[in-house]
Amino acid sequence: VRTRTSLLSLALSLAVGLGLAAAVLARRSQSAPSSRGTAARALTFTSARTSADALPPEAQGFAVSSRPPGVPSELFEGAWLTDRSRLLRTVKGKWDASLYVVPTSMGRLCQVLVVQSAKANARSPATGGCVRDFAGSTPIGLIVFDPDAVDAGGPVIVAGVVPNRVVAIRVVAHGKSYPARIQNSAYLYELGSSTAYPEAIRIIYADGAIRTLALTHPRPVAPRYESQRGGTSRRP
Amino acid sequence: MRRARNSFLKWPLHITLLACAILVLLPPAVAYAGTWFNYAQGTNGVGGTYATTGYAPRDADRVYHAAGFWWELWYCHTDGTCFGDHQDYVNPAYANGGSSYAKAFCHNLNDNSGVLWTCQTTH
Predict the structure, then answer these.
(1) Quick one: DSSP state of residue A222?
(2) Of A17, A21, A82, A213, whose CB has the highest number of CB atoms within 10 Å?
(3) Nearest by CB to A6, which of B11, B93, B120?
(4) Could you report the predicted ipTM of this complex, rounded to two decimals?
């Protein structure tokens, strides 16, 4: 009798524990309906998804399945639907760079830029971010990424996904404007030298309208980072 | 089998209770567990730079913030060299640190939206 009671207690405990875990996971996956985006609908594909469209292992760490604790629901991008990822662009220059997109359960579109040095087998750095609706203050996806040390090594890469109404992207550096080719609703541009840094991105629309996104940040250098080490605590 | 059954019969009551407690508490603890943690959170504070208190292997660094405002993410090694600088205005913005042993940083370039921002990384 005691054996049966003990086994019953253990089974009951396990059931309660699993029930609590399910409640925790359900609560974490809640998200506000108002935070739905439309960017994922802006891209349609005529070809079937292939193995080349799968997110590489280096980028898998980005994918979230539930809202992180402490993040407001209106900022949560939704669960990443990694089984629907697509490879949009690949450019081989000083970097071997590939741009992927992943839709989310909240209708947003997350970009993942995977970069590997053309002459090294080191693990690829990657970067990215999620576009909500290609409207207002975020008219295009835009990643400005320097994979290695600033002002050294390889050049900066500018990349992102664009809606269909965008016909051209130009990258402004050293006062000159350079065309970034759009293909598969995406652009991926590697600057000419490791010391160049984009000053602005110019968006050209099908109706002839032009919008410029200024990059006002002064070019970062390593000592600036370390000099602020003492002042990097949590804000009040 | 018979031997195991006999051993189980000899369990003291407090061991059984302990096993029950573990079975109740472990699953939700696992559900809560994650490699991500918040290392800075706030509103406004343009120009502020925030970092983890220590170094660790980092899978990624990200910031949740109001879309349309610029943030910068990067990592620094123990020798002071920094890498992986990423500027972005979409939300969230991600930077990946690969398998390096690094300190993760986030920097508010112009976010005066008044919306709560959260810098997160893994360890």
Answers:
(1) H
(2) A17
(3) B11
(4) 0.76
Residue B113 contacts A where some CB pair is shorter than 8 Å = no
The nearest alpha carbon in chain B to A26 belongs to: B31
Rg (CA), chain A: 22
Amino acid at B16: T
Contacts of B99 in chain A (CB under 8 A): 123
CB interface of B with A, residues 48-107, below 8 Å: 48-51, 59-60, 62, 64-70, 72-74, 76, 80-99, 105
For residues B3-40, one letter each, b for 16 or more C-beta atoms within 10 angstroms of the residue's C-beta and e for the rest, the string is eeeeeeeeeeeeebeebbeebbebbbeebeeeebeebb
How would you write the pLDDT of chain A (236 residues) with one tens digit per residue? 667 777 788 788 888 878 776 665 555 444 444 467 888 888 888 889 999 999 988 788 788 889 998 899 999 999 999 999 999 999 998 899 999 999 999 999 999 999 987 766 665 778 999 999 998 889 999 999 988 877 777 889 999 999 999 999 999 998 899 999 999 999 999 998 877 889 999 999 999 999 999 986 554 444 444 333 333 322 22
Cβ distance of A225 and B74 shorter than 8 Å: yes
Per-residue tokens: A188 = 């991926």
Alpha carbons within 13 angstroms on the beta-carbon side of residue B103 total 21
Place of tokens 């995406």: A186
Contact of A132 with A138, CB cutoff 8 Å: yes
What would the two tokens of residue A1 be? 């009798």
